[in-house]
Amino acid sequence: xxxxxxxxxxxxxxxxxxxxxxxxxxxxxxxxxxxxxxxxxxxxxxxxxxxxxxxxxxxxxxxxxxxxxxxxxxxxxxxxxxxxxxxxxxxxxxxxxxxxxxxxxxxxxxxxxxxxxxxxxxxxxxxxxxxxxxxxxxxxxxxxxxxxxxxxxxxxxxxxxxxxxxxxxxxxxxxxxxxxxxxxxxxxxxxxxxxxxxxxxxxxxxxxxxxxxxxxxxxxxxxxxx
Length: 226
Description:
The chain is mostly beta strands. The protein contains one helix and eleven strands; from the N terminus they run H-E-E-E-E-E-E-E-E-E-E-E. The protein has one helix spanning 2-19; strands at residues 25-40, 43-57, 60-77, 82-92, 102-115, 118-130, 135-148, 159-172, 175-192, 195-206, 213-225. It has an eleven-stranded mixed barrel. Strand 9 and strand 10 (195-206) form a beta hairpin. The chain starts with a helix and ends with a strand. 5% of the residues are buried.
């Protein structure tokens, strides 16, 4: 019952955001496939491919592909709670919707701690977004919570909930600094020791200190350990 109440609160939150967000609103979907490989006890790698597409824009329902992302992260565990990661991402847009392709470099610090069934994490990222005409430096901080929906331990065949809030700051000499905020809630299912599926929503306030653009994402992802 406790977890059900949490889920209902998040559903109501997203519905409220949508009802009060009439200007510059878009709905998008993002589908991803991730492959995780643990090289040894202190080092792991991740490869992912994601597709993003419009579902609602200009006050009309409309399916239109937007971009494809190829992502890699290498993570070094410092101890049980702390880790450092380096990432590289390439975004293809020019041949899809005419936007700019992007090369993104990422440096990340992550701290996690578990208290019974509840695990929380703090993540700091620094990104260099290299576009065709400019380079954007972006800083990000995310606070996340996740927990199984049945008991204190996640077993095969059971589900779990992931929630997070993230603040972003983008800077470039040619443009005014932009502030973003993202709220995310996803449910996941552990199908086997090596396979997970996640589905959820993410609401974004982009450039809210300049001219707010609001986006609702429907997220789906398949995560495989290899």
